[in-house]
Each structure stands twice: as structure tokens, then as C-alpha cells.
Amino acid sequence: MNSNGIQVAVFIAITLLVALATWWRCRREHHTVDRGRDFFLAGGSLSWPFIAGSLLLTNISAEQIVGMNGAQALLVAWWEFGAAAGLLVLAHVLVPMYYRYHCTTTTELLEKRLGDPALRRTVSVLFLLGYTFILLPMVLYTGAKFMKSMFEPDLSIMAISVLFALGGLAYAAIGGLRAIAISDTYMGVILLVMGVAVTLFALDAVHWDLSGVPIERLTLIGGPGSDIPWGTLLTGMLFIHLFYWGTNMVIAQRVLAAPTVREAQKGIYAAAFFKLLTPAIVVLPGVIAFKLFGDVDDDAYGRLVSHVLPVWMSGAFAAGITGAVLSSYSAALNSAAALYTCDVHLVKINPHADPKRLGRWATIAFTVVSLAIVPMYTQSKSIIATLQQLNGLYSMPVLAAFIVAIFFNNANATAVRWAMLFGSALYAVFTFVWTPLHYIHLMFVTLVATVAFALIGSRVMGGRTVLPQPAADPA
Q1: Can you list the pairs that 150-157 forms with residues at least 24 positions away whose Cβ atoms lie under 8 Å?
Q2: Cross-strand pairs, 127
Q3: Which among 1-5, 173-177, 408-412 has the top mean pLDDT?
Q4: Cβ atoms 347, 117 nearer than 8 A
């Protein structure tokens, strides 16, 4: 068998083995009579290893592995260290509150704290737009592009995207969150082992010597002109992670699926611990690639893997990358379906609809739309940067709404909605018209201004006393 045949055989074997192991495990799980909770929250039965595994693999996809290694500098490790801080805030502040209010979606907390279903739907629609037009197609495109550049299959980017979409749809529509979390954990182990192997082989290729790499690529203290100036660690960095790990349904959905608060927290602690170690996989290889190949940007990781891995291991690595892409895609599909079903359809269209059946149809619809957008990414690199900027238009305004709802009494929901609109407009000015500071600083400015707008507006319009917290469930 030639080298390509070995790669394909190992890839298919591992991918099928994970699918079969996931199916077998799902068959053994107890299913609840609440079909919506069973489909979107795994019936509240996820144990901490599966929560940790799903959190990590949902976060790590081809986009992160390629992009962070493409920076070819240790400085970007702050994104991983910051993630650990965001996870700890999720564990100690938000998770107890989500469980106390019996939330199915993160946005439900806004309604139950401020008593305004319209605010909940507004934030849900913002998330849905971001998932449909940015996250889902970007995961497909970056995953397909990486597989195309590394393994050179006789398939187009679009064809590979379709295969990824069908695989993600199978997990999301057939098995729901339970299947996604279980497969995430199995694939996460494979990706972790393969990622460590790549780093070790790469270090061996340079004889464990990084001399010759410029000092600015080895420092953790960013200068004013760097990607992460050190001052941003004191302003917007933490809040970006609070939004992503604490309020983003794609992430928080996993911790909502635990049987108790304590079990959810154990999964979060495990994920936070591993986030402190992941720079060895998503940062260090890029620096090694600089020593071997020079400044090659986003081609760094693909070239490094092709250069250092034995043939048979590259097939296993391809399976790990496939798992990462399927995880991120299926997670976003299931979360989008949950937001649409629970926050929009059952409330405004048909409260008697079957949540599980509706969720499956929603995942199919989101799959079709996201695939239709993939060609936009293939035509121009600039549109990717533009859509990434657009992603920031709602992150800080949404986080501001959560901060006001959680930490301030007498908040007016209408004022919060107007504040979110103000925050989006302000960040749009900072992004497209006038950029006086680094964008992470500007995200912090946007957050503070949006919170202030909501509080002042609540004072002018007349605040509504926040509902008292219900009694806490047993941990």
C-alpha cells in the first residue's frame, strides 16, 4: 500500500471507530421524557469528563490551530491563558445562576432576571445571525482549506465542506448534544495525543533548540505595535473571554447539560487546566516552524505537520482535525437549533411543537444556509477579515446586557435593548471609521459605554426591580 493509501486507511479507521464508539455509548444512556431537554441538553446527564472534552474540542478547530500557530509567536498564548480565567468566572458566577433559574439557553437568564421576553429573543437573534453567517461557514471553510492544503485530496474546497457539513449534521440532528459531547471527548483525546506528538517531533527536528528565533517571537510581553499589547490584558482581554465562555450558547450549552452545579464545575475546572497546557499544541509549533521555514504565516502548521510526522501518523492527525471541525460545526448547529426552537419558535410561532423534531429540522436549515455562504469565503480573503470584525459588533453589547441583568437592580429592559443598539453602533464607528486604540482596548471602551448607557437609560425610563433569585438547587 502506498503512503496515500496508508493515510486514508488510518483516517477512515479512526473516524469510523469514534462514530461506532459514540453510537454504542449513546445507546447505553438513559433518555428523559422531556424531548427538548434530552435533545438540546443531553437530558441533564453529562458527567464532568464529557463536559471538559466537549468544551475543549468545540473551542479547538482548524481555524484556531492554523491561525494561532500562524502567528508564529508565543505572545498569542495569552488567548489560552485568558480562556482559563474566563472558564473560572463561568464556574463560580454564571453556572450557579443558570442552574438556579433552570435555564435551557443562556439568553433565558436575561428574561428571568429582567422579566422581558423581547430582550431574550433580541439576543438570541443576534447569536443566530453570528452563527449562521460567520461561525458555521467559517468552520467549514477553514477546515476544508486546511485538509486541502495538507493532504491535497482530489476534491474542491466546496466538496470537502459538504462532507464536513454532512458529518456534523449527522451528529447534531440524529444524536443531539449527547452524541456531540461523547464524540468530542473521544476525538479530543486523539487530537491531544497527535498535537503533542507534532510538537515533540518538531522539537526533535530543531534539536530542542530555538536559538535564532527573534526575541520578539519568544516574549509574552507585547509591545504597543504587537498583536496583544500588554495593556490589553488589563482591559478587554478578560471580557472577550467572559463573553465567549460565559454567555455564548455554543460553549455554555455543555455546562447546562450536567446533572448538578458541582458536576458542571468539575468539567469546567478540568477544561481550564488543559487550556493552560494547549499553547504547547496551538502556539509552540508555529514558533518552531519559524525556525525551520521562516515567516510563512498560516501555512506554518500544515508545513510543519507534513515535514515531521510519519506517514501513518498523518492519517491519525487528519482524523483528529476532522473531529475538531465536526465538533465545532455540530456544536454550533445544535446551539443554533436550541436558540431558535426554545427562544423563538415555541414562544412566537407554535408553543405545542415537538422540540426534538423541530430542532432536527432547524439543524438541517442552518446546514443548508451555512453551506450556501461558504463560496463567499473562497472568493476573497478580505471578506473573512470583514466578517471577523462584524463578529465584534454584538459581543460586547451582549455581554453588557448580561452584566446589567446580573449585577444591577432596577434595570429597565427597554433601556438595555437601546444600549445594545448604541454599543453596536459605537463599535462599528471604532472598526470602520475611527480607530484610536487597539481593538481589544476599544472592545473594553464599548462594554463600559454600553453598560453606562443601560444604567442611565434605566434611571431615566424608570427601572424595574430585578426578580429575586429562586432557591438554589442542591449542588
Answers
A1: 150/302, 150/305, 150/306, 150/314, 150/318, 151/7, 151/314, 151/318, 157/374, 157/378
A2: none
A3: 408-412
A4: yes
Kindly report the backbone phi and psi dihedral angles of residue 470, in degrees, each rounded to the nearest multiple of 5, phi listed first: -70, 165
Provide the pLDDT for residue 230: 93
Nearest to 151 by CA among 305, 279, 24, 271: 305
Tell me the H-state helices in 131-283.
136-151, 157-169, 176-205, 236-241, 249-255, 261-275, 279-282
d(CA 436, CA 427): 12
Under DSSP, the state recorded for 107 is: T
**Cα-to-chain-centroid distance, residue 349:** 29
Mean of the pLDDT values across residues 90-111?
93
For the ranges 14-18, 189-193, 393-397, the maximum mean pLDDT occurs at 393-397
Rounded Cα distance between 465 and 21, Å, is 50
pLDDT in tens, 355-379: 889 999 999 999 999 999 998 877 6
Dihedral angle sign, alpha carbons of residues 156, 184, 188, 132: positive
Q: Give me the amino acid identity at 169.
A: L
- pLDDT tens string 30-48: 666 667 777 788 778 889 9
pLDDT, tens only, 194-206: 899 999 999 999 9
* Amino acid, single-letter form, for residue 244: Y
Task: Taking the CA atoms of 336, 341, 347 and 350 in sequence, report the sign of the dihedral they define.
Answer: positive
Residues 6+ apart with CB under 8 A from 159: none
- How far is Cα 96 from Cα 92, in angstroms, rounded to an integer? 7
Residues ≥6 apart with Cβ < 8 Å to 320:
187, 190, 191, 193, 194, 195
**Residue 270 β-bridge partners:** none
> Could you give the CA distance from residue 81 to residue 83 in angstroms, rounded to a whole number?
5
* CATH number for domain 3-379, candidates 3.40.140.100, 3.40.50.300, 1.20.1730.10, 3.40.350.10: 1.20.1730.10
Alpha-carbon distance of 167 to 172, in angstroms, equals 9
Instruction: Output the DSSP codes for 266-327.
Output: HHHHHHHHHHTTTHHHHTHHHHHHHHHH-S-GGGHHHHHHHHHS-HHHHHHHHHHHHHHHHH
pLDDT above 70 covers a percentage of the chain that reads: 92
Among 240-244, 275-279, 391-395, 449-453, top mean pLDDT goes to: 449-453
Domain boundaries, the chain: 3-379
CA distances from residue 339 to 36, 72, 214, 391 in whole angstroms, order as listed: 12, 37, 47, 18
Average pLDDT estimate for 435-439: 92
- The C-alpha angle with vertex 134 and arms to 131 and 140, in degrees rounded to 5, equals 95
